[in-house]
């Protein structure tokens, strides 16, 4: 799924540069239906499905607005934060029991927004210009309220990779200039959506360390 979704993101992001209004409208409709189908597959028809349908449509709307107007309306991150915290107790993506879910939601807000805020301040200090929009910071704070601090970190990391890949492709295709700004919102949104379907990143690390210790023990025993 991750490579299929990444392929869709890159193909249609580049397509937006050359597509017409009908193409763009059709893509948004397709992306909405595609995302809902995956949500239904994961949650079936449940409260979780409704909660993350709201989350997903918010991300899609934010992405489209950010792409065309270079701005993320502050109302959507605020709604995500409020909704994410209020319903955190019923959000299974945040953890197993009620209190850890609530704590993870709060930490997600601080981590998602805090990491981008620090990155933006460091980038401004180094490059003497704004490198991270305030809308992106607020967006990831809202996203963190839904998916927790670990997945928020993973989403930021994955968005940075996909954004870099798209930038290189657009440069190679001469669709953008070298110093032209690329909206980061669509990449943050797509990466955040993907994390819904993944286990907590710490479980990957635990599996890796277990696998590593297993093979080290085999080598030592030889």
Question: What would your notes on this structure say?
Answer:
With 222 residues, the protein is mostly helical. 79% of the residues lie in helices and 0% in strands. The chain contains 8 helices and no strands. It has helices spanning 2-18, 21-43, 47-69, 75-86, 98-127, 134-172, 185-195, 201-221. Helix 4 (75-86) packs across helix 6. The radius of gyration is 19 Å and the shape is globular. Mean pLDDT is 80; it is low at 207-214.
Round the Cα radius of gyration to an integer and report it: 19 Å
What percentage of residues falls in helices of 4 or more residues? over 70%
- Major sheet size, sense and barrel closure: none
Mean pLDDT: 80
Order of helices and strands: HHHHHHHH
Taken as a percent bin, the fraction of beta residues is under 5%
Q: Structural class of the secondary structure composition?
A: mainly alpha
Specify the number of helices: 8
C-alpha termini separation: 39 Å
